Amino acid sequence: MAEGLKPIIQYDFSKGENTVTSPFLLRPDQSQQCVNFLLDEHGSLRVRDGTLIEDSQSPNAARPITKLFDLVQNSGSVSYLAILSGINSANPNTLYRRDSNPWTLISNLTSYSLIPDIINFTGTAIIANSNQDQLRSYDTSTGFVVCAGAPNAQHAANHLNYLWAWNTDPVTDVPNLVGPSSLQSSDLNNAHSWPAANQTYIARDDGQTGQGLAQYTIAEAGISPTATLIAWKDFAGYQVTNPFGSTFSVQRIKSDMGCVAPRSSQFISGFGIIRLTHRGFALYDGVNDVLISEEERPRIFGRDQYNGLDWAQIGHSMATQCANPPLYICACPTSGPTLTRVFIYDLVRRAWTISNYPTNLATLQLILDAGQLPSVLSGDWDAGYVRRLFASDTSDDGTAIQWFLRTRAYSAGTPAERAYFRRMLLTIYGFAAGTEITAQFYPSPMVPVQFKTITKTVPTINAINPFLGFGLDPFGTSAFGATIQAIEDQVLEFPIGMKANNVQIQLSGTSQGRIRGLELHARAMPLTRSTYQGA
Predict the structure, then answer these.
(1) Contact partners, residue 305, CB within 8 Å, separation at least 6
(2) Residues 188, 289: Cα–Cα separation, whole Å
């Protein structure tokens, strides 16, 4: 008597994608590729949020929007700032207010940079444009002014109420206290006073340059929390404690990983500092420095069918955070300086997915305005718009979101045992009626041609169904079965009819929705040669 069909199920995708491990060895809660998805709260995959244009178009759409910043002052007024980078090194950057149509020009800067920075220091916006441009400040009362006595700076930080400048010149000039390894701070709460004593070189002329500043607080048992500044170089990190003075110290962390993309560095509460290094994304918790991106190594460095990042342009990568859901997000270049591959690290599940967008990105920014939920904004590279992300928008400014999922390899027994795969049941939630979902079935990850492609259309839920009960209306106020919830789980059946050692599935589609899980019905077959044939 023939053996009956048995289910092979996956209803948990909470560990994201793993591109480096064999499809046969992936965890039961992983996928091989997971593009334009977020990890839902209960193991499902949710199509990522779309984008929506926020402001009027910039004065020159061809120029990248490389920095966004909201200056919130004590009075409660907010200045919505943006920096447009020049098209090339012959064109300097420009500072604008973007809360008008057209944008209001504040001033031209004197140099070109794709990684300018703005921070809030004593109620003013401090602009660190490049190590060839002196620090400047802006607020609505004093306007746009040069910080008197301040050095140039590629990176700036507000640390312990001192303004810090890091990487202050392309070339070391000891008499003038500047260079790519120079760290300097202002006087307390004074961006216009820079004592010569408040300067030091960190590993001067070691062939590396200052690659960003990050801050966090460390605490050990019996020791009060200590505010610490981390100064990154290409292949090293240095812990700076206390302002300049008798207790000031600089100590190298025990790691040979630094930071290759200054704006990828983000302090994540409860975790530490995540940034992009020459080995991938790493997390420094104040003691240990560990890689967290091994699952994404092929997408970072390239391997097999994966194109790696453009390492000649890697320094332009931009990162930010999302509050809901809690995410670390980093956009990186794959060919040229535009940011086209977005790595998303789920901070709760410690797992990765990948996103891409129809427009080229130039920057990402978490906006923290008092009295409002935090929001994530992006700046276009060559379209001239500021867009909001992760705010429940259902399309990318009218363009449908295309998603893609490649599963692990499913076997009825071992990967070498043949089986008859009868069908797949796909459980979905929230996809609009009429949405098409396509499934491609491969007899093995090693067989490049799919056995079968099946497209299913999401049906309309029957709103009058006596088996659904009273629905949402209070008892006795409507006819039995008259009303139900507008959205319910649905199951789509894909008839496969394939004999193979194992099967790998590619799912693709458009529009918002969730993939709850899938169930294959298969029957093990007698051991025989390792080939497949249609049933």
Answers:
(1) none
(2) 31
Among positive and negative, which fits the CA dihedral 200, 202, 206, 209? negative
| Token duo for residue 270 | 């409860």
Could you tell me which of 138, 133, 100 has the C-alpha nearest to residue 119? 138
Structure tokens at 330: 């980093």
Spell out, as residue ranges, where the chain has pLDDT lower than 70.
1-3, 218-226, 445-450, 462-487, 527-535
Q: How far apart are CA 442 and CA 450, in angstroms?
A: 4
Q: What is the pLDDT of residues 21-71, one digit of tens each?
A: 999 999 999 999 999 999 998 899 999 999 999 999 999 999 999 999 999
Distance CA 344, CA 392 (A): 16
- Residue 67 CA to residue 64 CA, distance in Å, equals 9
157 touches 213 (CB < 8 A) = yes
The phi-psi region of residue 443 (left if phi > 0; otherwise alpha if psi is between -120 and 50; otherwise beta) is: alpha
Report the b/e string of 137-150 with b at 16+ CB within 10 A: bbbeeeeeeebebb
Give the separation between CA 324 and CA 334, rounded to whole angstroms: 27
- Give dist(CA 394, CA 49) in Å, integer: 6
Name, in order, each residue with C-beta under 8 angstroms of 529's C-beta and a sequence gap of 6 or more.
Answer: none
CB atoms within 10 A of CB 512: 20
DSSP 166-200: E---SS-BGGGTBSTTEEEE-BTTBTT---TTSEE
> Measuring CA to CA, how many Å separate 321 from each of 46, 227, 307, 347?
18, 21, 25, 10
Residues 163-176 pLDDT 10s: 999 999 999 999 99
What's residue 138's pLDDT? Answer: 97
Which residues have C-beta within 8 Å of that of residue 169, sequence separation ≥ 6?
131, 132, 151, 152, 176, 178, 179, 180, 182
Copy the structure tokens of residue 307. 């194109």
Evaluate if pTM is beyond 0.85.
Answer: yes
DSSP 36-68: SEEE-TTS-EEEPP-EEE-SPPPS-TTS-EEEE
- Asked if the peptide bond before residue 102 counts as cis, ω within 30 degrees of 0, the response is yes
